Amino acid sequence: MTDDLLEENAVPIPEGYQSMNWTRGFGRQIGPLYERIEEDGSYRRAFLVQDHHTNGMGNCHGGMLMAFADVAFGHAVTMAYHRYWVTVRLLTDFISAAKVGDWVEGTGIATGDEDDFITVKGRIWCGDRTIMTGTGVFKALGERP
């Protein structure tokens, strides 16, 4: 039995967020990840920086932030078009660092589409501090149920 399954070791998450509960794939490896869907259709994805997310300096690893940006920005395609998607291009700028214990949030908004290629503008932040900004191009695939 592992201690990480005990309720006393559960990560405290802010109100309105729910665990994404991925059962397989890459998202499960980088998690846990959380999301919050607002009544107006906007959304936020989030994670709590833990030891397994950090680099040798104790900051959240850039690769983790890139992977998170991918799922945070790309979700705009799901929300706006109700389609599956794959990433074609992801361009980001690292603005600040996140440390262990920081609650990191991100979102994106679709800004254009042409021939099933959706452009998304996104932002990742912690509190009032921007961690990363970027844009992505995502190929829209089949309809999502």
Automatic annotation (TrEMBL):
Pfam families: 4HBT. Residues 57-130 form the Thioesterase domain. GO terms for molecular function: thiolester hydrolase activity. This is Thioesterase superfamily protein.
